[in-house]
Amino acid sequence: ASVANQLGIRYLLVKPFDKSLLVERMAELTCLNTSAIVNDSVQLKISKTLCELGVPAHIKGFQYLHAVISLIIADEDLINTIAKDWYRQVAKAFDTTPSRVDRAIQHAKETALERSNPDTLQKLLGDTVRAGAQKLGNREFILAVANYVRHQTDD
After folding, report:
1. pTM reported for the whole predicted model
2. Alpha carbon of 43 to those of 31, 103, 130, 152: distances in Å?
3. Nearest of 133, 27, 17, 137 to residue 83 by alpha carbon
4. Greater confidence, 96 or 42?
């Protein structure tokens, strides 16, 4: 255990483990306990969708996107607010600034758009990418992913 502490490891999961435990630990590590906001299967779908889009799970933008999408799915009224309000909530949870959240999400989105093949983008983002994926703003990207996850959950 002391070697794990020295390496900065906060949790070890021994196989086999319950998926809900994995989701709970992931939420704890992101500092925003979104598992209390939306259920575990939605959390997993958000993570899976971001990975399918090519967002690397190790970058801050992944965590911030995950948190924002969780908030939007939990409270659809947030769709009508500006992205800066979303960034403020996430920044507070992660003890950072809204501008850092914005930049990290921008980087994650650009990485996803560079890495994803057009068919995957079309499948996950639909009509949003027809207008030109490279011109896609953070807000539109976030709302498209949230919409996709929400429809996956409805099925």
Report:
1. 0.71
2. 14, 23, 27, 12
3. 137
4. 96
Q: What is the pLDDT of residue 134?
A: 57
Q: How far apart are the C-alpha atoms of 63 and 52, rounded to whole Å?
A: 15
Q: Which residue has the tokens 């993570």?
A: 47
- pLDDT tens string 11-52: 677 788 777 777 666 655 554 444 444 566 788 889 888 988
Packed helices 138-154 and 40-52: angle between N→C axes, nearest 10 degrees: 130
> Distance (Å, rounded) from C-alpha 86 to C-alpha 99?
11
Structure tokens of 155? 């099925």
The residue type found at 54 is G
Instruction: Give the pLDDT confidence score for residue 9 in this predicted structure.
Output: 66
Q: How many CB atoms lie within 10 A of CB 63?
A: 24
Handedness of CA 131, 134, 140, 145 (dihedral sign): positive
17: left (phi over 0), alpha (psi -120 to 50) or beta: beta
Q: Name the CA radius of gyration of the chain, rounded.
A: 16
